[in-house]
Design a protein that fits this description.
heterodimer; A: alpha+beta; Methylamine Dehydrogenase, Chain H; four-stranded antiparallel beta sheet; 29 strands; about 30% strand; elongated; B: Methylamine Dehydrogenase, Chain H; 7 helices; WD_repeat_DCAF13/WDSOF1 (chain B)
């Protein structure tokens, strides 16, 4: 491990406060170390060993600094709910909370009732400040949740099935009746994406700038919103599905199907990465934990299952319906069903989810979407009569990082962030099940290619083995020297032939490899160095 | 029941006045940053591409000489100046910032073969094929003023003549002596008109001489009998001799590790040796395709620059087998001398086409004063590029250099030839080590016997 213990020297006695602090820091350090250190004992190369040990030490120092910063420098504290005596947390409702919290947070507890415009679905931008809302009957709106003000609302007079923000709060995409459209913050229609067809669900992959959509016929489309290029157009072959989620950890799109299978896709392949059978009946909802290890799925047979996505096995089964599922930044799971939403949390840090809180609405309001607001302890429910916002203490991440998502962003900061995130735009090839494999060594081929020396040595050895065979001495004038020499030569050639044939085949394979295409040759000479056989960006 | 919900006050998170900086809050939690490695990889790619975009190493040429530049000298006290001598006897002091001649030192009748500045920077020693050694007074005042219009000429302090043409001169570090190479190695004092000491081993001309920066009494020379000899002034006798396959054109000592020196050889390679252990080269630096004419170490001791007969200048790491950088221009012909500037940022090359060229040591470096943010960004780019430099896409971009066609062809020809010879088999180099007793103990007849006993051959 690359961590130096503070109290490694037994002779050194720390004052008790510092001892406690160093003990507290160790579990936090693990988070920042990002895995185990390398095993330096097996290295024989001294130079490499010394270089690596210096680097491991640096990792340890930086992890310690990050843990200390987390301990002391964070401006905000997280929310919590502590019950006393015989009170149960799931019996506490919003009304009893509202009398205990500060007034400025009360504005986050509200119901917006818009009865005629259909079930509402919603989306937040990455900092949690802006919310896009879409009613089934064609009502689109963008709101600023900090000031509780309406930025723009419009009526498109068509059914709208889904809405997502793109990389900014300036752009959002709405899946309308026939095609999805991209709109500006001012309500101007920017693009009509005809290729996607009648889209049921939309998702946006933030770091790749890809808009993923699943349509009525079960076709999955990936479109790059920076250049407008269609990256992937995949016929899933598994029928119509309206359950689609993106795993934020690795950018993989997961679809839930009516046969109970969940399939995971990446834009560059026509076959799914994974297909797992989750439920005996159709999958009704799905959600991913932000750390990418947990997935919650619910089926029509009244079970909510929590999966470990790395090992593809069930961790826990919770009885209950869920038409909408969502994980919060701190790992709380919200399951919405009918007019009741249940929140589960792993309170004892043991990856076992138990009931935490609940909220029931007016009977008859059907909850269609639950979404936790990033960086706030707020859960927003989109239901058939509008949307409601409730407080769930302990669900949001209290401390944001300005370079990742800033709820207090000015327009200048937003513009800079847009440019920087475009520079860091990931190519679509980096979507894989385990993204930490980038930069690691590929496992060695079992069939190693022979070097030229080895081939030459093999040929020599074969010839040596055959060279000294004695030929039968023929009589009666048939033992001519020339004939003997010819026979010997033929024998050696026969031995060499399979090796030469193998070499020829390999050379042919090498020659057949695709050369740089014509298109790249047509580039001006100054740019040809950036042309490559495979697309990189 | 105790409840608390996240509540942030706007005042705490936004700036107070419009003249304040915006507030920045950090949370280093890895959970907030998905796909870190992919983003780092993309940044490494972009950093490699940016490095290539900003790679403009050539700064300017200093022209004025009317014949090929044969030798250069650095003034250790003054960063901006460089001396150069040409094949027609013209010696000039240049101001690198304005790329103009500050002072001329006329006097030599033939080619100037060697230039050296004394450690205090006041005296310049030059030697040439007209069998003279000349000492000049370096006019410090004019350098400091660096007046554009004035172009002074200086008179020599002293002219000492010898019997044979001189091939090289080097000044002792922090001392009063300088050594010349010609028919034999001569040690001179500034004030004496005859050499105070002479060394000779064999009958061939000595073509280059270098004093050790750390040990002022040690010097290394190379002769045209393909040997490198180490001399010690205190013992006043030659100490070690190393004979190679081809002759060494120039030697440079590593200023940070003074026991190591690197020899620029005629067989297109440079060989680094530890002076205490001459039986095996520490490192062979292979990349040139024609004879390496001159070599100079950077003051950091971590890299050195070589100039070769194949019209290119290459920069090597002190322990690297291959060059990290190559500079070439259509107008630059055979490079005869190279120098690394004393602040390790620039390279000066003097070539056959009568020009001295000024290059950057790091081709994509941003010159001038950097803001702290710029510096951090450059450091970040370097670090992220080094982390992913083994990946094929990044490696391809970082390694890419445009070579002139004749050099590319010559290099691939050499490669196929070495592969045909059996790949990694090292060249059989005949190294003869000879431990020599002090000269005054030598008797002529005995010496031949002793020599035959002491010769031993070693194949590397």
């Amino acid at each position: 491990m690359g961590v130096k213990q503070d109290n490694a020297d037994p002779g050194q006695i720390l004052p008790p406060i510092e001892q406690e602090l160093s003990n507290e820091l160790d579990p936090k350090l693990k988070k920042y170390l990002r895995g185990e250190g390398t095993n330096l004992e097996v290295l024989k190369d001294k130079k490499l060993k010394s270089q690596l040990s210096v680097r491991e030490e640096l990792y340890g120092i930086s992890a310690k600094a990050a843990a200390k910063a987390e301990e002391w420098l964070m401006p905000s504290e997280g929310g919590y709910l502590e019950v006393e005596g015989i009170e149960k947390p799931w019996r506490i409702n919003q009304h009893s909370i509202s009398s205990e919290i500060n007034i400025s947070s009360l504005k986050n507890q509200h119901d917006i009732i818009i009865p005629d415009l259909g079930p509402y679905t919603l989306d937040f931008n990455s900092s949690g400040r802006y919310m896009a809302v879409a009613g089934r009957k064609g009502h689109l709106a963008v709101l600023d949740m900090k000031n509780m003000s309406l930025i723009k609302e419009m009526q498109v007079r068509e059914t709208v099935r889904d809405i997502v923000f793109l990389h900014n709060e300036l752009f959002f995409a709405a899946a309308q009746k026939k095609y999805p459209y991209i709109y500006n913050r001012d309500g101007i229609e920017l693009h009509c994406l005809k290729e996607h067809g009648s889209v049921l669900r939309l998702q946006f992959l933030k770091s790749h700038f890809l808009l993923a959509s699943i349509n009525k016929f079960g076709q999955l489309h990936y479109q790059d919103v920076t250049m407008g290029e269609m990256i992937g157009n995949i016929r899933t072959g598994l029928g119509r599905s309206d359950v689609m989620q993106v795993n934020p950890f690795n950018g993989v799109v997961a679809l839930g199907h009516s046969g109970g299978t969940v399939s995971m896709w990446k834009p560059t392949s026509a076959a799914p990465l994974v297909k797992m059978l989750c439920h005996p009946g159709p999958v009704s909802a799905m959600a991913f934990h932000p750390n990418g290890h947990l997935m919650a799925t619910s089926g029509k047979e009244r079970k909510i299952k929590i999966w470990d996505v790395r090992k593809f096995e069930v961790l826990q089964t919770i009885p209950g319906h869920a038409r909408a599922l969502d994980f919060s930044q701190k790992g709380l799971l919200a399951a919405g069903n009918g007019s009741f939403v249940q929140i589960f949390g792993d309170l004892s840090e043991s990856q076992h989810y138990s009931r935490y809180m609940g909220h029931s609405m007016v009977k008859g309001y059907q909850i269609g979407k639950v979404l936790f607001r990033p960086y706030e302890d707020v859960l927003v429910l989109g239901h058939s009569m509008g949307w409601s916002s409730i407080l769930i203490p302990g669900s949001g991440e209290p401390n944001f990082d300005t370079w990742v998502a800033n709820p207090y962003e000015t327009s200048k900061q937003r513009r800079e962030k847009e440019v920087r995130s475009l520079l860091d735009k990931l190519p679509s090839e980096t979507i894989m099940l385990n993204p930490s494999k980038i930069g690691t060594m590929r496992p060695v081929n079992k069939k190693e290619k022979q070097t030229k020396q080895e081939i030459a040595a093999e040929m020599e050895a074969a010839v040596e083995a055959v060279k000294d065979t004695a030929f039968k001495n023929k009589t009666k004038g048939r033992n001519k020297a020339s004939k003997r020499a010819k026979k010997r030569k033929e024998l050696i050639e026969r031995v060499k032939r399979p090796l030469l044939e193998r070499q020829l085949k390999e050379d042919e394979k090498l020659a057949k490899k695709p050369k740089i295409s014509e298109k790249e040759n047509a580039l001006p000479t100054a740019l040809q160095r950036f042309a490559s056989k495979k697309a990189t960006a | 029941m105790k409840v608390k919900v996240i509540s942030r006050s706007t005042d705490e998170f936004t700036r107070e006045r419009s003249q304040d900086l915006q507030r920045v809050f950090r949370n280093f939690d890895p959970n907030l940053r998905p796909q870190e490695k992919a983003i780092e990889y993309v940044r490494a790619l972009n950093a490699a591409k940016l490095e290539k975009i900003f790679a403009r190493p050539f700064i300017g040429a200093m022209d004025g000489h009317i014949d090929a530049v044969s030798c250069m000298a650095k003034n250790p006290n003054y960063l901006k100046g460089i001396f150069s001598g040409s094949m027609d006897g013209d010696i000039r002091l240049w101001d690198m910032a304005s790329r103009r001649t500050v002072c001329q030192f006329p006097g030599h009748q033939g080619a100037v073969r060697g230039l050296a500045a004394s450690t205090d920077g006041h005296t310049l020693v030059s030697c040439g094929t007209d069998c003279t050694v000349r000492l000049w007074n370096v006019p410090v005042a004019t350098i400091v003023e660096s007046d554009d219009s004035s172009n002074c000429t200086a008179e020599p302090l002293a002219v000492y003549s010898g019997n044979n043409a001189f091939w090289d001169v080097d000044h002792q570090w922090d001392g009063e002596l300088f050594a010349t190479a010609g028919a034999q190695v001569d040690i001179w004092n500034h004030n004496r008109s005859q050499p105070i000491n002479s060394f000779e081993w064999g009958t061939d001309t000595v073509i280059s001489v270098r004093f050790n920066p750390g040990e002022p009494n040690l010097l290394a020379t190379s002769a045209s009998d393909r040997s490198i000899t180490l001399y010690d002034l205190r013992v006043s006798s030659p100490a070690r001799k190393l004979i190679m396959r081809t002759k060494t054109n120039s030697i440079a000592w590593n200023p940070m590790e003074p026991m190591n020196f690197t020899a620029a050889n005629e067989d297109c390679n440079c060989y680094s040796y530890d002076a205490r252990k001459l039986d095996e080269a520490k490192c062979v630096h292979k990349d040139h395709v024609s004879a390496v004419m001159d070599i100079d170490f950077s003051p950091t001791g971590r890299e050195f620059v070589t100039g070769s007969y194949d019209r290119t200048v290459r920069i090597f790491q002190y322990n690297g087998g291959h060059s990290r950088e190559i500079y070439h221009t259509k107008r630059m012909q055979r490079v005869f001398c190279v120098k690394f500037s004393c602040d390790a940022s620039y390279i000066i090359s003097g070539s056959d086409d009568t020009n001295l060229r000024l290059w950057k040591a790091k081709a994509s470096e941003q010159l001038g004063v950097l803001l702290p943010r710029e510096r951090k960004r450059h450091e970040y780019h370097e670090a992220v590029k080094n982390r992913y430099k083994h990946l094929p896409e990044v490696k391809r971009i970082v390694r890419h250099r445009h070579l002139p066609k004749p050099i590319y062809k010559a290099a691939s020809l050499r490669r196929t030839m070495t592969e045909a010879e059996g790949g990694k088999k090292k060249e059989g180099k005949l190294i003869v080590l000879q431990e020599v007793l002090p000269l005054n103990h030598y008797v002529k007849e005995e010496s031949s016997k002793k020599l035959s006993e002491l010769w031993h051959y070693q194949l590397l």
